Amino acid sequence: MSCSIAVIPAAGLGTRMRPLTYYVAKELLPIGARPALDYIMQELAECEIRDAVLVSSVTKKPYFELYAKECLQTYGITCHITLQENPMGLGHAVLCAKDIVGNSQFVVALPDDILVKENATMALIEAAKEVGGSAILSQRVDWADVEKYGIIKTEDENSLLVDSFVEKPPRDKAPTNLAIIGRYCFSPLLWAKLDAGLEKKLATSDPKELDLTIPMNALINEGHNIKACEFNGIRHDTGKMAGYIHAFCELAKKN
Ligand code: G1P
Asked: How many Å apart are CA 217 and CA 224, to the nearest integer?
């Protein structure tokens, strides 16, 4: 079960990063001397990922086309750019890459999360192999922040096999403070669950976003193994201005 392709959802408007994002795609803002996406591509290249699907909006596509040329030369990764024309949540963004990824194991990397000190993607690919299923990256967060994340309930306290997920629960409904952070390694079985989730959403005019936790729960209910791997490196959340500036200062010293 090899894994050589990644999906990078990058269609967001970057409203929290205005005014910078009026002029450049958030994912290409500089962090030190490099565009933010370079950090993800380097992480992926170290795992021998050779193809990346950038899920873009119409306006950001020209920036990613320019980036794709550099990316192939520097990291040996071919970028495929596909459009998410009508944003309906993270699960929907990933589903836009289905035809390009096809029937293979694949990584999802959320570009806001820049992870250093440990190659998280490499650990996830190994973990998914080990359980013959999928794997997600996790980190303990402050209880006050559980409502910002997908939260993980494991089978028991000592297990890292996931029992279920709950997306952005209020603090009093969160089963744990173990949060999903921005890397996943999925079996292609996810596609059918995403298709079903979208179909249901459209049929019922459900205004809620199609999250990734919905199809992941559906997989677990059918006996699919999903392992949670705890991340012990450093995570920079560059989707907000304060996190972006902090990441810039820290990583500029090193690059
Ligand atoms: C998304 C996911 C959530 C996950 C988070 C990690 O939320 O839906 O489950 O915990 O990414 O950053 P978003 O940050 O896009 O709202």
From this structure: 9
Burial label, 8 (beta-carbon count in 10 A; 0-12, 13-18, 19+): buried
Residue 149 C-alpha to ligand 1 middle, in angstroms? 5
CA atoms within 13 Å, Cβ hemisphere of 170:
2
Tell me the per-residue pLDDT of 20-68, one tens digit each, with 9 for 90 and over. 888 899 999 999 999 999 999 999 999 999 999 999 999 999 999 999 9
The SS3 of residue 65 is helix
Distance 73 CA to ligand 1 centre (A): 31
108: Cβ–Cβ under 8 A, 6 or more apart, which residues?
6, 7, 8, 9, 94, 183, 184, 185, 186, 212
The answer to whether 66 and 27 have CB atoms below 8 angstroms apart is: no
User: How far away, in angstroms, is 88 Cα from ligand 1 center?
Assistant: 14
Rg (CA), the chain: 17
- 101 C-beta closer than 6 A to ligand 1: no
Of 111, 2, 10, the C-alpha closest to 47 is: 2
Q: Ramachandran region of residue 117, left (φ > 0), alpha (ψ -120 to 50) or beta?
A: left
Q: Measured from the CB, is residue 166 less than 6 Å from ligand 1?
A: no
Dig out the tokens for 52 from the structure. Answer: 């990346």
Over residues 108-124, the pLDDT tens digits come to: 999 999 999 999 999 99
Q: What's the pTM? A: 0.95
Place of tokens 């993607």: 121
Residue type, 235: R
DSSP-H helix ranges across 132-181: none
